[in-house]
Amino acid sequence: MITEGTYPYAVGGVSSWCDAIIGGLPEIEWEVLPIVAGGKRLHQNYQLAPNAHLLAPIELWSEELPPRHGFLGGSETEGQSVPSRLLEGLVTWNGNAPTLTDALVWCRRQPQVIRPSFRSRRAWDKYLATLTQVLNEQHDQASRAPHYDALEAARLYQTLYWVARTAAAHTPPCEVLHATAAGWSAIPAIVHKALFGTPLLVTEHGIFVREAYLAALRDTTASPARRHMSTRLALGLTRAAYAAADVIAPVTDANAAWERGLGVDSGRIHVIANGIPPPRAPTPPPNAGKVVAVGRIDPLKDVQTMLLVAAEVCRRRPDARFEYWGPPTPGQEIYAEACERMREQLGLGTSFRFMGRTTDPQGVIRGADVVLMTSISEGMPMALLEAMSQARPAVATGVGGIPGVIRGCGIVAPPGDIHGLATAVVTLLSNPELASRLGRRGYERLRRRYTLEHCVEGYRELIEQLVGEVTT
Amino acid sequence: MSTSTVDHDVLPGVGPPADEATAPTPRGDQHAEDVVDARLGRPPSDVLEATVVLEAWDGRPAQSAMSAARELVSPDHEPALTGSRVDPSDRQERRSVIAEGIALVLSILSVAAWARPLSRELGPRALEDAIRLALPLAVALQWALRSRYLSRRDGLALLAEDGPSCCALLLLLVVAIALIAPWGRVAALLVLIWVGGTVLTLRGWGLLYAVGLLAGTAALDREHAAYAALGAMAAFTILLCLVAVLTRRAPTDRRPGGLRRAVLAGLIGGAVGVLLVGDPSLGWGVHGVHPAIALVPSVLGSFWGGYYLWNLYEAIPRGLSGVPLEHAGSAGLAGPALGVFLGAILRLVGTTIVLSVIVATLGRWTHGTDAVTVFVAFGCAALASMMLSLFESLSLQRGALVAIAAALAAEFACRYFVQWHVAGGALAVGAAVGVLLTLPALIALLSRSGRVLATTLWIQ
């Protein structure tokens, strides 16, 4: 299992999922290969199950030198074309999977030559010539590429170096490769598959390329070239992962639509929904006009819309109380401060409170009458599953997998529709019977479709199938 | 496991052609265009960007968003050239250079002031041997500390975390030095005082350090108190150092620099130290020319030059922002990298010349620090040291080691084969060789700012 900025070092939905899958499949021996940002100390937040072994992480943007192992042969001269080949394979609109795979495999075979090759004058000159060609590419699905300046060219070159370094990482012998995103974590898997023919399973919680576009849109200070670079790299990595994958397992049909849109045939897509442990019998709601949201404070969660919704709800139901549970995403502290200022400006006072981190999301949801989610992008949010497990109705924006999850057990409104979301919340607060009915339906739906057992069983079947195909 | 049963396998806009679209656009294209325009304030860069906007801010399902997005992209849209944002540098080199500069000047002045009382008590030969061992070791440790801790954000906190192992290593080294010879104890104490000074000045406690040195100097002037005074100074410096580091103890998620790199930096620094003390014509603080005082101009020059040189990390990205791609690979004397480099050399050379003239003029007062060749030698050594430091900083350690080895060989050759009786002559020749080997390579490298940023600064 190859993870990317998540398990076992970071706490979050994807990490919890990794932990649950590994723990839920004790008959499988797992080798966990994390990819992390370099230069920082790593704190392991998850204790690995006895059937899992943690490999040395691949550190990106670190000072560590590449490994010295590798096959014999190859030369620095050959390596000097690697940046151009990676560029061609990743940054062109349609990508170039064969060229990319060849270059990545070369990096794995010659790890000790990567650094001197990238540091050579010829590699840089070749790269600049190829970059000019790539930027002049015309395609009816994309505007002309923005003008890159020398700084962005250097930045992209550096990123390609880390792609090469990631490809050079050693991967242990295994029967199935499991990448937890169609991004950086797929790189070592693509190489391993090309070398040894091992089947590759890619799980997508979000869509890597969509998240890259959203991140680029949120970074208002980024130059057009920088946006272009980050989104094209993400597109290139995603396309390469899709091309190499035997099976892609999105967590929701909404993600599957993206995968098909990017050219993956339906036969390789197997939706396996996330799940949570079977819930206990639900408790009755407090009927206290309490609305709870659980999630990070992040622009993707559109907390500012939630504040406006709260303001409108409080105008119509002055007894309503909102609690937002969750810390700011690292790096989004300024956004969190802006949300706090907005809360004060709206005069919400104690009607809306940021409660900070919680270790018991189901507990805080148990104390709610309604669960609210105003995100502009979601895959399959755990917070909604937790709401269903406590038989609480949800009001949420219709993005990603949300409409599919809360179908028949919640109310969906378009993202940013303050009036629609507020009306839905007021309706549920004012009609406890309706709220209770929707909550009960959610509870039953969860037990039928979204338990951890379903999720783990899905992976068990899939992995057995992949191993079986190799054996036969 | 549930398998997706949706039949609309292909979506227009990204993979297949538009006429294969199966999902109708829920609203008119004009609405989609308005949403995208309102959100982006510009035409979308591609189908996926428009899709993301329609999904996130119009609530359209992916399939429908992709269909609508296809119509919104204009392949002929002409982009504008804009400069890119320059990310702030993480490096703390400037501060560490200042620290090293102040500490070095104080160390030199202390050597100058201590020479007479120490040689009186220990004997001139013993003191000279002690300095010849202590100076290279101290410089080596300073370079290694800078590479692993002091040049980094949270450097002192990182040093505090590694404190026990660093203390153990230092103790081992000091004991080993002390056991080498009778003068080993003096060398060990000098190493402690000089290395501790670097840490103290980085902590901003340079003044306290200076007070300690002055008090020690006064004590040294008393008869038969050399060891006691030096020991007290070393104890004071190390105690202060411990307090300085421990009070900066804070949780940090950063990691110190690589050990291998620190060892290499230490080797290069140590070799620079050997170059400095390798010329026998420089009777270190004992008699004849007075090298300690003569070092001050070049040290101050290299301090200013080095301080300016660390602008490289920000000047190059800033200078390349907005430079068209077609000029990214071109060479030029007016590029930001070479500009900073030549500026640093000018500062070093200019300061050294001006201050050397002043010190030489005051030669009588400084007990004969008037041999022009000594100033030239130290100026060359400072220049070589700056070049080697830059080589090390650019991860060109192998080149730095070759250059310093050649410099040492030249100095050695002058010393044993040429028998050149000029004060500082061997050092000047050795340092000049070091400069000649590194300068052309650095000019060639730094004349191409785009390349040096991409292939050297950002790939370490």
Question: Quick recap of the structure?
Answer:
The complex is a heterodimer of chains A (472) and B (460). Chain A is of the alpha/beta class and 472 residues long. Chain A has 19 helices and 13 strands.
How would you sum up this structure, described in words?
The complex is a heterodimer of chains A (472) and B (460). Chain A contains 19 helices and 13 strands. Chain A has helices spanning 13-24, 76-79, 82-91, 97-109, 111-118, 121-135, 150-168, 186-196, 208-218, 224-244, 253-261, 303-316, 333-345, 361-366, 382-389, 402-405, 418-430, 432-449, 452-471, and strands at residues 2-4, 30-37, 52-54, 58-60, 177-179, 200-204, 247-250, 290-294, 321-325, 352-356, 370-373, 394-397, 410-413. The longest helix of chain A has 21 residues, at 224-244. With 460 residues, chain B is mainly α. Chain B folds into 3 domains: 18-63, no CATH class; 91-257, no CATH class; 258-460, no CATH class. Helices cover 69% and strands 0% of the residues of chain B. Chain B is built from 18 helices and no strands. Chain B is elongated. Chain B starts with 28 loop residues before the first helix and ends with a helix. Residues 1-27 of chain B have low confidence and may be disordered.
SSE topology sketch:
The complex is a heterodimer of chains A (472) and B (460).
Chain A: E1 2-4, H1 13-24, E2 30-37, E3 52-54, E4 58-60, H2 76-79, H3 82-91, H4 97-109, H5 111-118, H6 121-135, H7 150-168, E5 177-179, H8 186-196, E6 200-204, H9 208-218, H10 224-244, E7 247-250, H11 253-261, E8 290-294, H12 303-316, E9 321-325, H13 333-345, E10 352-356, H14 361-366, E11 370-373, H15 382-389, E12 394-397, H16 402-405, E13 410-413, H17 418-430, H18 432-449, H19 452-471
Parallel strand pairs in A: 1-2, 2-3, 2-4, 5-6, 6-7, 8-9, 8-11, 9-10, 11-12, 12-13
Chain B: H1 29-40, H2 47-58, H3 62-70, H4 93-122, H5 124-150, H6 155-161, H7 163-180, H8 184-202, H9 206-220, H10 226-246, H11 259-277, H12 291-309, H13 312-320, H14 336-361, H15 372-393, H16 397-418, H17 425-446, H18 449-457
Helix pairs in contact in B: 1-2, 2-3, 4-5, 4-8, 4-9, 4-12, 5-8, 5-11, 7-8, 8-9, 8-10, 9-10, 11-15, 11-16, 12-14, 12-15, 13-14, 13-18, 14-15, 15-16, 15-17, 16-17
